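User: Quick sanity check before I run a bigger batch. Here is a single chain. Can you write out its predicted 3D structure?
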Amino acid sequence: MPHDRAKLQPLTLEEITALESRIANVRIFTILGLRDVTFLRGICRAVAPRRREYDGIFETFHGGLLITIADSTAALAVLTLTGPRAKITTTDMSIRFLMPTLTDVVVEARVIKFGRTLVPLQVDLRNMDGNLVAIAQVTYMRLEG
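Assistant: Done. Predicted structure follows.
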């Protein structure tokens, strides 16, 4: 499948610089504090720090933040295929929480299908021991052809 192999290709330095510039101008990425952000075509990986002041009622990584991290990382994965200036929006998402986490979270968003209008993604969130703590599905809509 040549198309699948193309998605796994690294981005050029210019493409990465453009994506990093886009991230710098979106406040949620600053708030989330994503680090070690890595891009491949159709994929974004990052580490989201756990901040105790944002813990939920069980003193673990708050689920609302986990879904925000999944959504934000999914957007970046889409932008690796559309280019950083594309207009995209979330149409729907769901998350399944599998276990609580007390550590930073490694998140990987992967495009399932790069459609003309809709782009569904799978997002895996793991604790620092590599255990899957949540899985999400996110669908983005491309707002321009």
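DSSP finds four helices and six strands in the chain.

User: Great, the batch can go ahead then.
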